[in-house]
């Protein structure tokens, strides 16, 4: 795993390189749902098998996800409840955000959270409450080497998929989350 300093520098270089290619700003964003399974599989192979689906931190507690019935995962939910107010736990979870508002979809008000004051309060996420993806990117690459970043950048540029950079630092402007995006 990269240190905060090294990955922060990498993220800075990535954001600088994204602004550089001519015409990239003008390219329309592609709905992530239009990317085919074979395209995702090719990205996963390019990233050494480190492509994963992103989910909100509290998803294991809910009986509904995106309005559809799902089976809650009791053990995973208990782990989330126990770590919900612990910054080290949150930072170690892909779908966790220190400032939980950045996991919410600001435009639609969709969220998937627990009661921050009492994470064990099951009435907060009891049916009919539904967990929504919010602004947690749909896919992410667990970056372990420079070639993972290169694969993600190339994929985002080729297909017009929005890209978010998330590491263990803080982004009080919410740029580490983006709905329907690929994250590094």
The outline comes out as globular
User: Gyration radius, to the nearest Å?
Assistant: 17 Å
Strand order of the largest sheet: 1-4-6-5
- Strand-residue fraction? 5-15%
Proportion of residues in helical segments: 25-40%
- The residue ranges in which pLDDT falls below 50 over 5 or more consecutive positions are 1-27
- Figure out the total of helices: 5
The biggest beta sheet is recorded as: 4 strands, mixed
* Topology, number of strands: 6
SSE sequence, one letter per element: HHEEEHHEHEE
Explain this structure to me?
Strand 2 and strand 3 form a beta hairpin. The protein has two domains: 85 residues, no CATH class; 70 residues, no CATH class. It is α/β, with parallel strands linked by helices. Helices cover 30% and strands 8% of the residues. It is globular and about 45 Å long. The N terminus is likely disordered.
């Amino acid at each position: 795993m990269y240190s905060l300093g090294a990955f922060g520098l990498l993220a800075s270089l990535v954001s600088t390189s994204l602004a550089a290619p001519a015409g990239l700003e003008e390219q329309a964003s592609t709905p992530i749902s239009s990317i085919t399974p074979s395209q995702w599989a090719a990205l996963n192979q390019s990233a050494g098998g480190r492509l994963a689906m992103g989910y909100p931190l509290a998803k294991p507690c809910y009986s509904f996800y995106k309005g559809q019935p799902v089976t809650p995962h009791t053990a995973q939910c208990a782990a989330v409840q126990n770590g919900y107010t612990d910054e080290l736990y949150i930072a170690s979870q892909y779908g966790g955000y220190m400032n939980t508002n950045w996991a919410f979809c600001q435009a639609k008000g969709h969220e998937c959270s627990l009661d921050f004051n009492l994470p064990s309060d099951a009435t907060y996420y009891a049916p009919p409450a539904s967990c929504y993806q919010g602004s947690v990117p749909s896919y992410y690459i667990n970056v372990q080497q420079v070639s993972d970043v290169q694969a993600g950048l190339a994929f985002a540029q080729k297909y017009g998929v929005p890209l978010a950079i998330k590491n263990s630092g803080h982004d009080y402007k919410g740029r580490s989350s983006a709905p329907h995006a690929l994250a590094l």
